[in-house]
Design a protein that fits this description.
It contains 15 helices and 14 strands. It is an alpha/beta fold. It folds into 2 domains: about 220 residues, Rossmann fold, CATH 3.40.50.2000; about 170 residues, Glycogen Phosphorylase B (Rossmann fold), CATH 3.40.50.
């Protein structure tokens, strides 16, 4: 869990005052390599290295492949990582995580972890309990633990999971939606502070009844000391047998339904006659099997597993152009965590986002912005980009400035300690 963005480790012990104790309640946590687990892990590490006592209640590692990591059992256990005590709790997962399964997974974690989080709060006596959404199903246990101990509560909204679940049809029905939204409003308004990752998400949360003075925005961060442009070709080119003259269009991250990745094989099929263009997908998730099947008939499309963190910068520098697809109607419900690394690599970035969305507004001038699902326009853009170099424009530097790890983590720690 150690990385370059953490300050020098300070000693901490049970004698630390209560004001410097934080309990992090997050379904996803390190060693999950991408998404919420990555950010929750880095935040816990940063706080611990800054002299805070940190405890974590989390699920058994399972994301993005929706299967339990090797050497881990889907059961309760305790571990320690760089001075952080982690209480692991089981959950329901299966390879086909769609529909009802996607709802059962967070509910199962909320149920399996409820007693654990209440017990650890009673023993640890933290000043602050931070609960991460997803999953909001776990929030009642955090709020109950706070009521028993007087701890301050912070909700970190990484994903508006209820809105997203209905947007991609994991959940359906007018009355079910009304019930889910009523629960969401009640729970969100019960937290002392709510932190989210984009301005549009902040506005949506405000519309759910959370008062503006209790809302903050801290973007998901990127460590530009760790991920940066390489002066030489990425070693992945030689390892994968890709000629230097080949134009690589890269997607790296979760292969899930919300990402709208089904468009990439369609773009690859349209450009299949251009032998110098290659599409690479690195990741895992529910849509992986379907993408692999489609790649069998497309010589210009390959699918690979996720790469370890220490190779992420080299992987992102493999791209001549990154592509970020989004399913229409979900763009303002999440802000893709992969965005920071894409920008920090200094490569071309093709991003699908509707005008008026936060992603579209934030990336003005820093990325090539296309309407979601536009195969024709995306194909033309890729053809146009061949043989060109990104210019490292001022807009790109502005985006990276807002997403810098040091500033974001420092701001987050200020919010957590009040």
């Amino acid at each position: 869990m150690r990385n370059s963005m953490a300050p020098r480790m300070k000693s901490s012990s049970a004698a630390e005052p209560r004001s410097r104790r934080v309990l992090l309640y997050s379904m996803n946590f390190t060693p999950e390599p991408i998404g919420i687990g990555k950010y929750s892990g880095e935040l816990a590490e940063y706080l611990s290295a800054s002299g805070y006592q940190v405890e974590v209640v989390a699920a058994v590692p399972h994301y993005p492949g929706w299967q339990i990591f090797k050497k881990h059992r889907n059961w309760w256990r305790t571990e320690t990582n760089n001075g952080v005590r982690i209480s692991r709790c089981p959950l329901y997962v299966c390879r086909n995580m769609r529909g009802l399964s996607r709802v059962l997974c967070p509910i199962s974690f909320a149920l399996s972890s409820a007693i654990t989080v209440i017990w650890r709060v009673l023993v640890f006596r933290p000043a602050t309990i931070m609960c991460v959404e997803p999953t909001l199903f776990a929030a009642p246990a955090a709020l109950l633990a706070s009521a028993l101990t007087g701890a301050r509560t912070v909700l970190h909204v990484q994903d508006l999971e209820i809105d997203a679940a209905f947007a991609v049809a994991h959940l359906r029905g007018k009355w079910l939606r009304r019930l889910a939204e009523a629960y969401e409003r009640l729970v969100m308004k019960s937290f002392d502070q709510v932190v989210t990752i984009s301005l549009k998400m902040r506005d949506l949360i405000r519309g759910k009844g959370v008062k503006p003075e209790r809302l903050s925005v801290v973007r998901n961060w990127v460590d530009t000391n760790e991920i940066k442009p390489m002066a030489c070709p990425s070693p992945f080119r030689a390892e994968l047998g890709i000629p230097d003259s080949t134009f690589v269009v890269l997607y790296s991250g979760n292969l899930g339904l919300k990402q709208g990745l089904e468009i990439i094989p369609e773009i690859a099929a349209k450009l299949v006659e251009h032998k110098d263009i290659l599409f690479l997908l690195f990741g895992d998730g529910p849509e992986k099997a379907g993408l692999i099947e489609k790649s069998k008939s497309l010589p210009n499309l390959r699918v690979y597993p996720l790469q370890p963190r220490e190779r992420l910068s080299a992987l992102l520098n493999l791209a001549d152009a990154h592509i970020l697809t989004q399913r229409q109607g979900t763009t303002d419900l999440v802000l893709p965590s992969k965005l920071g690394g894409m920008l920090a690599s200094g490569r071309h970035c093709i991003v699908m986002a509707d005008a008026g969305t936060e992603l579209h507004e934030f990336l003005q001038g820093a990325a090539i912005l296309l309407k979601p699902g536009n195969i024709e326009e995306c194909s033309e853009v890729i053809l146009h980009l061949r043989g060109t170099m990104p210019d490292g424009c001022a807009a790109l530097q502005r985006c990276l400035g807002e997403m810098g790890a040091d500033a974001c983590l420092s701001r987050f720690s200020e919010i957590l300690v009040g």
